[in-house]
Each structure stands twice: as C-alpha cells, then as structure tokens.
Amino acid sequence: MRAFGDRLQAALRARGPLCVGLDPAPATLARWGLADDVDGLRRFGDTVLDAVAGRVALLKPQVAFYERFGSRGLAALEDVLARCRTEGQLVLADAKRGDIGSTAAGYAAAWCDDASPLAADAVTLSPYLGYGALAPAVETAAASGRGVFVLCLTSNPEGAGVQLAGPTPDGAPSVAAHVAAAAAADNARRLGDAVGPGSVGPVGLVVGATVGHHLRDAGVDLAAVRGHLLVPGLGAQGATPDDVARHYGDLADRVVPTASREVLHAGPDAVAVREAAERLAAACAAALGRPGR
Q: Which regions span the lipid bilayer (predicted)?
C-alpha cells in the first residue's frame, strides 16, 4: 500500500476534513430503536457504512463497543473493517493499545499486520508505558503502509493531570510535549528531508479540539511533528469547527476533526446521517480554509 500519510492526505482533499466515529454505544443504539445486542450492533454498523463509506476522509470504529460482546462483537468489527477495505474507506481502529515487549508486538500484529482480520489503516495508541514501548506498533504499521495516532493531549478533564505534568527527565515542559517530540523524531527518521508529497509520516497525534494552546504556550511546534492531528471534541463534546481552526488552523492540511454523536444522532435514517456528515465536513472545510467535497 501507499504510505498512510499520503493516503489520508488524498482522502482529506477528496472528501473534506472529517473523521466520523462509529460508536455503537448502548444509548445510541436505543436512540436508533435498536436492541443492545450483536444484531443491533451489526444493523447500526451497516447503516453508518451505507451512509458514509467512501464519502468521508476517515471512519473511526470505537473498539470497546465491539469488544463488550466478545467474539461475536469482534466478528462484527472484522466485517466493518473488511467492508471498508472493499469500499475504499480509510478506517482508524480506536483501540488505544499500549504495552511493552512481546505484548506490544502482539497488539501490533493484531491491528497493523496484513495477516490479521482486525488490521485497519491506522490504530490509536497510548504512550503511558513509555513512548519507546510503542515501537513494535509503529514499525509494523509503517512497514505495511499503515499509521498510528498517539494520545498526546486529550480534552477530557482527567487527562491534564498526567499529560500536562512536567518537566520530564529529557527536559520537555510536559508529558504531552515529550510525546509530541518523540513522534516528531519518529517521523523524521522515516521522512528525512522530504517535502511535498510523501512528507507526512506514519505517526500522528491525538489532540483535543480546544486544548491545543497548552502545547503552543509550552513552545511545542506541532508542525514539526510532520504527522496528522486527530482532533476530537466536535459537536456533542462542545467544540465547533471555529475552535478547531483557532487552535490548529495553521496546520489545516493535516488536521482531522472527528465527531461521533454530532453525526450519529441524525440516524437511524442513512440519508440523514450522510447529510449530517456532509454538513459538518463542509463547516470544517470552511473554517479551515480548505476546499469542500
């Protein structure tokens, strides 16, 4: 496959800057009139894919909502991933994995290896056993044309107590700044002096829609990461496209705003879900000064 960074850049240009979360939470299934069981899970997933597959830059299934049904839930997730491959839809598995040694390698094989039915185009990772422990996933993903998004600075209130702690032993002003610097170094090793096409690395960061100023105030240059920024918090979590533009507008070509309930609550009609996604993608494109779909 082409490198994930290149494929995501192409999708953002063609489909607009939006990632739609595929979150079959019990409350959302109930809102759609679906049972909170595997059948409801599958019907929900099929409808969302009917609505947006091939129409948005990135689709992000939340793995936890599938795992709660055990092997039958994971089988449903495998079907979502397989359909996305067939329909040319980039998909990010929101699994937030992170461990050490052989366990980290096992997670990497599950989510980033061609041989796995769970392999997605990218996976979210947690760096809180040490950024270096993510190496198996980063290496496996990059070798197969996939990517990773590393939790850096999230918008949940609990996150700041860890992510903004510092300074760290390497002199970074905070843990989040250390993670950003480590991601930048990882991408630099792979990209060298590349500019233009091919200059976006496989390691992206997760940064909340309204908290980017904490990194800027600490002197962190997010452009130096040379990876995509997954920016959650739109809609139901309170952020607007203008918030995204205010904090990350200078990186408009690499920002991927993400929303779940803001789009999914338009269901259960697939056309209504599609229209909600298209409206939000257009609003994000306008705020960021990017071409719309």
A: none
